[in-house]
Design a protein that fits this description.
Layout lengths: L1 E4 L2 H13 L5 E4 L5 H14 L5 E4 L15 H29 L2 E6 L12 H21 L4 E7 L6 H8 L11 H13 L9 E3 L5 H6 L1 H7 L9
InterPro entries: NAD(P)-bd_dom_sf, Sc_DH/Rdtase_CS, SDR_fam
GO molecular function: oxidoreductase activity
Protein name: Short-chain dehydrogenase/reductase SDR
Length: 231
């Protein structure tokens, strides 16, 4: 497994934990919005670990807490860049290989804020809504080639970003989610058992993924768990 982040100490700590658990981990430093850096990251992963069969787009930043008209436009756009451009760029770099091999899975880390309006943290909401549309578009395009693409909310996992946004009142108070719940959801989707849910947005805490898998045909037929307008 390869782990990528802008901060060397954090990514190395994660790699050490994976290695201690019996896995093989490659720690790499790079910014997901920088094309040249991500091209080098992907090339090195394939060189040292082999073909990439699973991509988890987890990089994200939150926006400034002030009103939209008071915020710096560059700060707003940076939020969109990291959450959307990062995922689209990394997906683009691995999809060609996945399609050629006829297999692969991409998991985009989403958020419920994508599906409802908010007067705070608008850049984050806009980016996550666009990420849902990127997810179902890529899923539709790549499904015939054996590639599945999902959007997954991990719930309110306690991180530096969520702590900041919670304290600043950008998100409503809710119970913290255990990170292991999201990890189990990722493993399930990565296993291939959830491929019938490709293109869908699911929630690691709220949704029973095993039950959704049994309903996958009906979910697709009714076009559920997706960003849609109803008329």
């Amino acid at each position: 497994m390869a782990v990528v982040a802008r901060s060397s100490p954090e990514v190395e700590e994660t790699a050490r934990e994976l290695t201690a658990a019996g896995g093989r981990a490659l720690a790499l430093v790079g910014d997901v919005v920088e094309r040249a850096q991500m091209e080098e990251v992907v090339a090195r992963v394939e060189r040292e670990l082999g073909p990439i069969d699973l991509l988890i787009n987890n990089a994200g930043v939150s926006g400034p807490p002030g009103a939209f008209w008071e915020a710096d436009p560059d700060d707003f756009w940076r939020v969109v860049e990291v959450n959307l451009r990062g995922a689209s760029l990394c997906s683009r770099l691995v999809l060609a290989g996945m399609v050629a091999r006829g297999r692969g899975r991409i998991i985009n880390i989403g958020s419920d804020v994508a599906a409802r309006p908010t007067h705070r943290n608008i850049g984050y909401a806009v980016a996550k809504a666009a990420l849902l549309r990127l997810t179902d578009c890529l899923a539709q395009a790549a499904r015939p080639q054996g590639v599945s693409v999902f959007a997954l909310s991990p719930g309110m996992v306690h991180t530096r970003m969520t702590e900041h946004t919670w304290q600043s009142g950008q998100w409503p108070a809710e119970a913290w989610a255990e990170p292991e719940v999201a990890a189990r959801a990722v493993v399930l989707l990565a296993s291939g058992r959830g491929d019938g849910l490709t293109g869908r947005y699911v929630h690691a805490v709220r949704d029973d993924l095993e039950a959704l898998i049994t309903r996958a045909e009906q979910i697709e037929q009714d076009d559920l768990y997706a960003l849609r307008l109803r008329f």
